[in-house]
Amino acid sequence: MTATAKDGIDDPMADTPRQNAIEAPWEVSDRLLACVGADAGAEIVIRAAGRLATRLNAAWIVVHAERPGREETDPVRLKRLDSALHLAERLGAETRRLIAVDTVGEILRLARRENVTQFVVGRPRQTLWRRLTGAGFVAALAERAPDVSLHVVNAPAPPPRRRALAIPAPPARLWTGIAAAFAGVALAVGVGEALTLALDLPNLSMVFLLAVLGCAATYGPWSAVAASLLSALAYNFFFIQPLHTLSIAEPQEVLSLLVFLIVAVLTGSLAGRVHDQATAASQRAEAIAALYDFSRKLAGAARLDDVLQASATHLRRTQGDAVALLLPQDGDLQLRVACPPDRALSAGEVGAARWAFDKQEVSGWRTHTLPDLAMQFRPLLSPRGAVGVCGFTPKQPDAPLAPEQERELAALLEQTALAIDRSLLIGEAVRAAALEDNEKLRTTLLSSLSHDLRTPLSSITGAVTTLRQLGAQMPETDRDDLLASIEEEAARLSRFVANLLDMSRIESGALKLRRDLIEPSESVRAAAERIQKTFPGFPIETSVAPDLPFIGGDAQMLEQVLFNLLDNAHKYAGNAAIHARREKQSDGSETVVISVTDDGPGVKPADLARIFEKFYRGGRPDGRKAGTGLGLSICKGLVEAMGGTIEAQSPATRRRGARILLRFPAARLKVDPA
Description:
single chain, 5 domains, 5-stranded parallel sheet, transmembrane helix, 19 helices, Rossmann fold, kinase, Beta-Lactamase, histidine kinase, ATP binding, alpha/beta
């Protein structure tokens, strides 16, 4: 059974547990869920789960769960976690990040939704407490999901290497927070002294607690801890007897100071943690808003060049000092967009970009491939494979990208790759539609040629053969009829070839029109006379309003348009009427309207918009297709080239017939001053 057929069977059966309120896994097909952390054994667990999923031909999910307020903040562990999740995606897994107070319960809820039948987890490090109590994630998972198979993978972390003690330099923000703690405590001392002079307050510790909370809310937990210690010392020195010493006379004051210190440290730490979480939430919200704005811009970009320009501009604003986007073309990578535009790629950078595209791996700055380059190159991966390469110069080349930057960059590049792939697919669809249209036109043209050339040629050949073999024996009237037939069929061929040439010139843009002043009445009269010469006995009613204004265009082409319309009426009806009049527009300008009306079967409402398409042919009253389907299409091209419009109406009179309306703006005559 193929994978597609198998999935088609599994999908409705996978809905059965939900429809019947079955909470246990419904074992239609195996589904795996691997739980990983930010430790060094995450990749081992993922590879083991991948091998098991391959053997079982099962879908699998990799999950990392955290508790709110205890999210991973260590950059090394975050980078390791991101790397592990990227590995899982490359191996074909879905990845999820969960935040919940009850992580085991949230994982089990996810497992029930996804109909997971087997868990894969790493063996945790056995501490003394876990040995004594049997507590731990694996034990809780096994206890709360007894109906799901549990695979425990030995994933020992490598022993830590002994390194020389190195005290990292504290960040500038830490020094700023400590300075703020000194300032806040000094302000609290001043406020306390003022309150002591004005009021007889028994306890001023709340003033210092405000300073601690202010530092925590502004600069984070470390500033709050520093403010707590400084507040305890300052409160003891300035407000506990004996004053201006660090000694304490009363035992209860020792207890009060100790309680104050504990409360200050706890509240300051909590407030600082809230500050950090609020800052992180704000940064995540900004990143999500930026990603949403970027996605909206990409969704509104119709052309590939617009997608590339929007992507390069956004990536430069958020990720790097310079951005380059390269796409495959003619068997090689070509630089399509650079931001700034004058940023050129060196030979080494081009080589790194090719390597990233071919291997679908990161190259350049801070990688194992050409790490000395100033630019890093990442492949743009879509479901169809690599569609291009993005190169960027980081804003801080001396430091690696933070985990948040890595995640944001990965999301932006994924959106860019999908947008590029979408634009390429649209282009392929347009080209395929054009090829299909060309094939249809070619088939229609060949069919039309085979009929419209063969019929008159057969008539001409038959008439010539008859004249050659029996000409001397035939009466003169019969010979004249055959010669008239030859002349008529030759004229028909001539019109057909002329139509093909006119359509070819219109399609290629090679049609040259004269820009003269045309008197509409002359063109109407010339077209009527020409059609009567071509089809003697065809009744035509002509009506031209007096004093029609001139129109601009080519008189010969206008006559050809009217002739084609009358020829079309001859094919489908027994008579035709041609009228010309003027119309006054709302803006005061004038329009010349020329209409050609017949009393034939008319045009179906659904076909009114199609009758001006190439090779569209309506049916005669006897059901046969008439003409080549080029006449009305040529009329449309010529009329629009002269600045006019053409429109079809049906029924025209007494629920029958069709009317073609031509509208041309009246020409403005320049009058020379006397």
